[in-house]
Fold these 2 entries.
Entry 1:
Amino acid sequence: MQREEIWIEKYRPWRLDEVVGQPHIIRNLKSYVEKRNLPHLIFSGPAGVGKTAAAVALARELFGDTWSENFTELNASDERGIEVVRNRIKNFARTMPIGDSAFKIIFLDEADALTDAAQSALRRTMERYSGTCRFILSCNYSSKIIEPIQSRCSVYRFKQLPDDAIAARIAYIADKEGLKLSDASIDAITYVAMGDMRRAINALQSAAVLSKEIRPEMVYGLTAMARPEEIEGLIKEAMNGSFMTALDKLAELLDRGVSGDEILAQMHRLVISMDIPARKKVELMDRIGEADFRITEGANERIQLDALIASFFLAGTRGRG
């Protein structure tokens, strides 16, 4: 029996032109390929927006058939200490590149997880071996990279992918896999993806295991997310004075396995687009942020969400008497 391949690997971009949603960054990376040279780089941005894909595609186009020998990928979150810099990184950096390449590339994923001591050691390694090695550091927040490293790198900030870029890629994969995908299903996948291509492809593959015809309810169920209209209805019930009804809707979502984090993230997206006065939006956003912070700090999730619904009720009914 043939083992099913993971689609995020099967459909990983292998050339820079295949990386979607980051046109300005890709244009600059292609100029490095043309010049056969590049500086140290920092790729920052949220998960699933193409940082690793861009690094691998860059290496493939620079090195051709010898790309795998001249490119190594390390995950800094797995090995956070100074020893990984002193041993694995230094050992790779000090060896000469294979073939006619002028340098090798070390791709350090989740570099913001490195300790300050490890980053300081990395800085010295970058200085010492810059003649034969280039570093690409990937992170969610470039501010967590120490300033001496930032000053030695060109920083590229990857943005969340637009819905149309995700929709086009999902439609392409569905066609290749022989899936039946409606516009409503594509909308559901782009909604749950929240700008993350990896999340979108995983949602599509999960649904495809169940059926060749992808339906929106399958997508929401498999990703444990609520439909946008459910979250909007919850907010409106509370603001219109139906406090207990809103609490019942919240309890139903939690019982279905929708996490508090997802509910807050969806509320954040919907409040911004809702047709309510700006002052009320500010008030609701402030309370969503406060609830998110408290839950992150370890407060009881259910109590914080109930309190958030109560604040929506007060914001909506204030001044009605």
Entry 2:
Amino acid sequence: MSEYGKPLYYDALKYCRRCCLPETVEGIKFDEMGICQACQSSEHKMHINWQERQEALRQILQRHKKKSGSNYDCIVPISGGKDSVFQLHVVVRVYGMKPLAVTHSHGWYSQAGRYNLENALRKLNVDHIMFTPNQDLVRRMSRRSLEVIGDSCWHCHAGIGVFPLQIAVKFNIPLIIWGESVAETSGRATHLDPIKFDKDYLMKESIKAGTDEMVCDYISKKDMCPYEFPAAEELESVGIEGIYLGNYLFWDEERQTEFIVSEYGWRETEVEGAYKRYKSVECIMAGIHDYTKFLKRGFGRGTDQASCDVRAGLLTRQEGFEIAKKTDTKKPGMLKEYLNLVGLTEEELEGIIKSQRAGKAKELP
């Protein structure tokens, strides 16, 4: 274990000079002072005219509301997590839109997550479509995901991105409204240079592998049909536009969580691999995803959350590193169940994930 206040791999990796993010974060960039883009973006938030951005959001929503050729003004992808419940609140209660809520189920809903989803849909009175892949396919896709992209959740990454597009085409609903901006935490963008939502972004930053790469001796091409993108001409015909509310509203997940807890009775719960009780509460396997990230990149969700708290002034950088080390390195309680599910030993899982390391991550023990 490293010294107090120092990161776990301070001898092997470069870290942001302001927060706790290492150079193994995918797509991270540091400026000449060694500060990551997530920290730069945090500073930008203080100087942005958010009233102007909210006006831009209002105009986008009104434009789609007026030209809607469907029964719905927009699609809101919703898992029941803190972000998607808040974005549904904003769309319905603040801007008076009529959305179609769309859910791709990862197949691993927690009790709190199921309650939060159903409670939000009921209290906000919105129509809802949910796709749930069969559990055996989820098991097989998760097993294959380890080999192809180095984490356990390809089916979730792909489903969250592709299923709303399929529904948008089917019901002719051009506008898809997401929540948190990529600029908030990932270090891959800033609020001054936001990422545009499109198929290329989804493939590069989220899904990372196409359905053809997932096909193997235990997954067929037919199994992958629910995860195929609509044809380019279909997307163009509908005129798909995807936006992130976090690019138009000052995003504060702590205050937003407090709000939905108070306003809608949203429930927090313990989340493995994290020290906060509100991120990914809907999934019982969230800790597996974050543990595989730790094995692959040398950091997990503890580092992500600590970095956010350091930027917000809630922790010193040294305190953040200490919390991150304790959180990231802890094996999830669901690990044994997951290994049984996918038919691997712990040693085999570690071998598969470590073989996916790239760049400086290859120097990790």
